[in-house]
Design brief:
The complex is a heterodimer of chains A (about 190) and B (about 600). Chain A has helices at about 15-25, 75-80, 100-105, 115-120, 130-135, 145-155, 160-170, 175-185; strands at about 1-10, 30-35, 45-55, 65-70, 85-95, 125-130. Chain A is an alpha/beta fold. Chain A has a 6-stranded mixed β-sheet with strand order 2-3-1-4-5-6, sandwiched between helices. Chain B is of the alpha/beta class and about 600 residues long. In chain B, the strands form 6 sheets. Chain B has a 7-stranded mixed β-sheet. A 6-stranded parallel β-sheet of chain B has the order 15-14-16-17-19-18, sandwiched between helices. Chain B has a 4-stranded mixed β-sheet with strand order 9-11-10-13, with helices on both faces. The longest helix of chain B has 22 residues, at about 195-215. The chains are: A alpha/beta (about 190), B alpha/beta (about 600). At the A-B interface, helix 1, strand 2, helix 2, strand 5 and helix 3 of A face strand 1, strand 8, helix 10, helix 14 and strand 21 of B.
Chain lengths: ~190, ~600
Amino acid sequence: MTSILLTGVGGQGTILMTKILSKALVELGYDVKMSEIHGMSQRGGTVNTQLRFGEKVYAPNISEGDADIIVAFEKVEALRALPYLKKGGRIVMDSHEIYSMPVLTGEESYPSDADELLKKTVGNVLVIPASKIAEKLGNGKVQNVCLLGALAKALGLDHVDWNKLIADTVPAKMVEINQAAFKAGWDY
Amino acid sequence: MSKVLLSGDEAVARGAWEAGVSVAAAYPGTPSTEILENMAQYKDDVYATWANNEKIATEIAIGASIGGLRAFAAMKHVGMNVATDPMFTVAYTGVNGGLMLVTADDPGAHSSQNEQDNRLYAPHARMAMLEPSDSQECLDFTKAAFDISEKFDLVVELRMTTRVCHSKSIVELGPRQNVPPKKYESNPAKFSMLPAHARVRHYKVEENLRALAEYSETSPLNKVEHAGSKLGIVASGINYMHAHEAFGEGVGYLKLGITYPIAENLVRDFCSKYDEIIVIEEGEPYLENTLKAMGIKCHGKAELGPQGELSASRIREAFGLPGENDTYESPAQAPNRPPVLCAGCPHRGFYYSLRKHKDKLVAVDDIGCYALGASAPFFGFDAGICMGSGFSIPIGLSLALKAQGDTRKAFGILGDSTFFHSGFNSLVDAVHQQADVCLVLLDNSITAMTGHQENAGTEISLMGYEVPAISIDKMVAATGLAPERVRVVDPIDQKAMDEAIEAALATEGTFVIITRRPCALLREVIKARAGRHCEIDADKCKGCKACMRVACPAMKFADGKAEIVDIANCTACGLCAQMCKFGAINVVGGAK
């Protein structure tokens, strides 16, 4: 069984990303479970989505030390989620920074070197400027599908028609940019 | 049939449609909201509606059931408290068309004010209870609920938890069952609960529960997995999944799908085959106490405790099981990221103004986004209990303040949806009792916290039809409160907001402030402000940080200057500009 923890800040689009990924995994014949808690945390708080797949999955949620991969949409969220990572696990993360209220008001400081610290601690860390890539493509929102490209590559999911899955999931006028974002993530 | 990935909530909606349900009603509440949201797609077959509260939703479903249609109401756990009045009595009457009440409990209180365990309602109210553990079971058990309800003439409680509601797993879809209405015939002895009828029906419901208990002994909704081990596990719902992950394949499992009434022979037979029985359950020791009352030796709650949500690792830790993975020590501290009021949120303007008058008032809030005004820098209120209470707790509080010579005025805070839910009743009492309170109604024109559900104040229904919006202003006026005791203001306009609060403080007796500005996340609001945002002139900015006091997530203070960090997120509400004495902040952009 493979366990993936996706972490980000409310509104970053973890839901769409896991929707496309889980469709692919169902097509590949895996048992898939996905869990997320939403509600109050949407309002600018940390949002975690958990995805597990394998021959048979029981619990939908991941305990500390269970995650094979952490996908972080934001730099310090990777740091916060670290206790969930299994020893020997991997991190795929965006170098994007979103400041929380205590940081904005100057009460707490933002460790901008979090990616470097994680590289030293974990080793297997792929840092990808997904937000910047998305903005260059013309829409910052496709950050999520760019990260999906990087994750799909890391999982070795190459027997999947990703372009078709993307086309089936996103609105018609967003297909091309999402496919480009996926490719940029895969090729990074 | 096709296989798809559905959340538990989506699967309940699908199951209800497949079961031939014709009427569905709910008041939104996390984690149950998506059930009714997903019923709306079946509007050609199902009348799906938001109700003003859970009691009304339940009563709409009861009416449909009495009339011969399959119907259900869905609610979060605390919502069921509101529905208990009809619930305890309809349990006696039984049904005509099948009737299901869905409760979505929230162990861990992810988005709730308590962790109550609504399994206890089934034996208390005399209802049948089913507990699904994944999305396929959400669909299957929903269908079974209607068959059981009609076959045994019982109301069925479908009990879910956050992790079941909000997890997605693979579901096989089926067709809709054609269930024509059962002919309505007048039957007061069954449905009119006069004392003489109720006494008779109480015998009947006990008889029906005994019949279901017998059926439950062989029902496929309960599952036994023997392992020839010394240890046997008894669990239901999501806890079966957690237990299976923690204890693995080497132990026996009794997974109960029907958790009231209990299949006693099945339980006894299972337990007799094991030296040790552990019950894995979140919340109250409901199953454990049931087994103990049957004379079965078992344990579990002493190790797990009644608090919080379970996980495989919590179970491993509680019972000293192997399987914990090693993880990493964090190399640095991640700064906190508490949820905050969104950029452009109308509530920010209200709370900022309230804060300025903090020494002259004591505020009580209610359930909604405005609860985010509790933390720094607003510290907006001292108490908050449940839906509607924001307008009634201040009545009692004002008496207590007066009794000790405290001259501060009691303020109550609630939103438009909460007002329709039950706050209106409290307002009527405040006015009728001439309570010395200021009641603030934060009208953002939507049920915001749960993700923008329509309510009685909106012009569109859950099914997308145009409906008359009920006027909050006219409801307030209907209480007869003198017009000089009512203010309607834009909360972002600090001058008007301050004046309203000052007028309330200067007025003895009941005062109402309606703050009116739609939620900043509404589609039409986003469209209207497209391209507009605030801009800070760095030359004029003196670094006084006055603008930072409104705690807007689109702003940052760095290198001695304020700046808009997130232009896409800034709504151009202009609250920060009102803070600036130096004219450094201006709204720019957009066609206007």
